[in-house]
Amino acid sequence: MVKKYFIMFCLVSLFMAAPIAAKAARDTCARAARFAAQQAGVPADILLAITLVETRHDGTAWPWTLNHDGRGRWFTTAAEAERAAADILSSGGMADIGCFQINSRWHGSAFASVTQMLDPVENALYAARYLRRLHGETGDWHAAIAAYHSRDPARGQAYLDRVFGQMVPMPDSAAPPARRNRFPLLHAGDPGSTGTIVPRLAGLPPLIGGP
Predict the structure, then answer these.
(1) Potential cystine with 49: which of 30, 71, 73, 166 (Cβ 3.0-4.6 Å)?
(2) How many folded domains does the chain comprise?
(3) Does any domain span residue 210?
(4) Cα–Cα distance between 129 and 74 in angstroms, integer?
(5) Residue 25 — very low, low, confident or very high, per pLDDT cuts 50/70/90?
(6) Hey, how many other C-beta atoms are within 10 angstroms of the C-beta on 78?
(7) Cβ within 8 Å of residue 13, ≥6 positions away
(8) For residue 117, what are the β-bridge partners?
(9) pLDDT tens digits for range 68-102
(10) Position 101 in a domain
(11) What pLDDT score was predicted for residue 77?
């Protein structure tokens, strides 16, 4: 009888813990984004919008997210996501990982392990510092956001539009909310090309996917 009640207690505890764990996971990327924004001097509204664009699942940014071969996968736990990522990388593949979908091929060497790369705070800190570096190169948050995703002007602009679609101004942002660049001459392009006076960045791979 005691054993029976113990089993029932364990099952009830498990079912009660699942919603609590899910609630905690729902807030994880947002908390990591705010912390990383403060540490790196990046506007919090930008990081919050980026993580939503990258990992939105059931109305929230989801930390245990992978993208492999163009297909997004959302896992219930960190352990499940870590095992899946390890399988992909061990087979020679690459994946975009975590809250900010950091690409393992271009940026994996910055992390000691898949576990660290998937960690929401480590993931967010790397993304924030990278975005800050892009801003230092361009002097403009619009160009930095676009380059975070792609060096291709069309793909970068499409990504910028998606980020603006998710952006909610934060009262404690490190800088005023970015405004959309509606001036074609200020869009990044190849040096010396017609239609632009802003050179496309060189030497920095995009954080997500390929050039």
Answers:
(1) 166
(2) 1
(3) no
(4) 25
(5) confident
(6) 17
(7) none
(8) none
(9) 998 999 999 999 999 999 999 999 999 999 999 99
(10) yes
(11) 95
